[in-house]
Design a protein that fits this description.
With 259 residues, this protein is an alpha/beta fold. It folds into two domains: 3-172, Spore Coat Polysaccharide Biosynthesis Protein SpsA, Chain A; 175-258, no CATH class. 41% of the residues lie in helices and 23% in strands. The strands form two sheets. Strands 1, 2, 3, 4, 5, 6, 7, 8 and 11 form a nine-stranded mixed sheet that branches. Helix 2 links the parallel strand 2 and strand 3. Helix 5 (175-195) packs parallel to helix 7 (231-258) and helix 6 (203-224) runs antiparallel to helix 7 (231-258). It is globular and about 60 Å long. The chain crosses the membrane at residues 206-224. Pfam families: Glycos_transf_2 (PF00535).
Length: 259
C-alpha cells in the first residue's frame, strides 16, 4: 500500500530538511515549488523528493495539484514547516499496513512559537485533517472556498479518525518571522473580508472590529483558556494574534475605501 507525501514550497531551505527527514520512510515524496530563490529545490532533490516547479495559483489549487501528481493510495499532506514525531511515524506505518477501514485521519498539531510548545489558549491540540485516501478527499474548491486566499480547507465526507501522536509545527522561530506572517496573512484575510462585503463602514463597526474584538479575543484566550501558562512566549503570541485581527479589519477598511 503506497504512501505519498505531498508538500508545496517557496523558500523553505530552513524548514524542509526536518520535514523531509521525518517522512523518508514514505514510498513517494512530491514537492511542488513555486519559484524558490534559495536552496529549497536542491535540498528536496537531495533528500529524495520528486520536484515539480509550478507558478503559484493559490493554496488550495497548488495543494490539489501536488496531490494529483502522487501515485500512492494514501496521501499525507504536509506544510514545509511541519515534521512527524518518531511516535507518529511509527503509528502511521503500523496502521496503514493493516489497511484501516477509515478513509481519513486528523493529526494533532503541536505549534512551536519562539521554540516553545504552546499548549494552551486554544493552540493545542491543533488538529488538522492531513492523512487520507487519495480517492476520498482534496482541498475544497467550491463556490465558498474557490480562490480563497488563506485558510484552505480539506473537503471530506465521512467519519475521520484521530491519531495519538503529534505533528510538530515549527512555525515561528523568531518574532520577525511572525510579524512577516501577520502582515502577509492579515492582507490576505482583508481581501477575503472585502470579497464577502464584511467592511467596517460605520464608526461603531470600525471600533468594534479593530479594537473591541481583538481585546476580547486576547482576554478570552490568554486568561480563560489559560494562555498565560505558556510564559512570555504565550503572552507575546496572544498579543500579536489579537493585533493580527485588528490589522485584518483595518486593511479591509483601507482596501474598501480605495474602491
Amino acid at each position: 500500500m503506497l504512501v505519498s507525501v505531498a508538500i508545496v514550497t517557496l523558500n523553505e531551505e530552513e524548514n524542509l530538511p526536518r520535514t523531509l527527514t521525518s517522512v523518508r520512510w514514505a514510498d513517494e515524496i512530491v514537492v511542488v515549488d513555486s519559484g524558490s530563490t534559495d536552496r529549497t529545490v536542491e535540498i528536496a532533490h537531495t533528500l529524495g523528493a520528486r520536484v515539480i516547479e509550478r507558478a503559484w495559483p493559490g493554496f488550495a489549487a497548488q495543494k490539489n495539484f501536488a496531490i494529483s501528481q502522487c501515485t500512492g493510495t494514501w496521501i499525507l499532506s504536509l506544510d514545509a514547516d511541519e515534521e512527524l514525531t518518531p511516535e507518529l511515524q511509527t503509528q502511521i506505518r503500523t496502521m496503514l499496513a493493516s489497511d484501516p477501514p477509515i478513509d481519513a485521519y486528523y493529526l494533532r498539531r503541536r505549534n512551536l512559537f519562539l521554540g516553545r510548545w504552546i499548549k494552551h489558549g486554544g493552540f493545542y491540540p491543533d488538529s488538522k485533517l492531513r492523512l487520507f485516501r487519495r480517492s476520498a478527499a482534496n482541498f475544497a474548491l467550491t463556490p465558498q472556498f474557490e480562490e480563497r486566499p488563506v485558510h484552505e480547507t480539506i473537503a471530506f465526507d465521512g467519519a475521520a479518525g484521530t491519531l495519538d501522536y503529534d505533528l510538530v509545527h515549527n512555525a515561528y522561530p523568531a518574532l520577525s518571522t511572525y510579524i512577516e506572517h501577520m502582515d502577509r496573512y492579515s492582507g490576505l484575510g482583508a481581501d477575503l473580508l472585502v470579497a464577502k462585503g464584511r467592511i467596517s463602514r460605520s464608526l461603531p463597526s470600525f471600533l468594534l472590529n479593530i479594537f473591541v474584538v481583538p481585546q476580547i479575543m486576547f482576554l478570552w484566550n490568554y486568561f480563560f483558556r489559560l494562555g498565560f501558562l505558556d510564559g512570555r512566549e504565550g503572552l507575546l503570541l496572544h498579543l500579536y494574534h489579537a493585533t493580527y485581527t485588528s490589522w485584518k479589519y483595518a486593511k479591509a477598511w483601507e482596501k474598501a475605501r480605495k474602491v
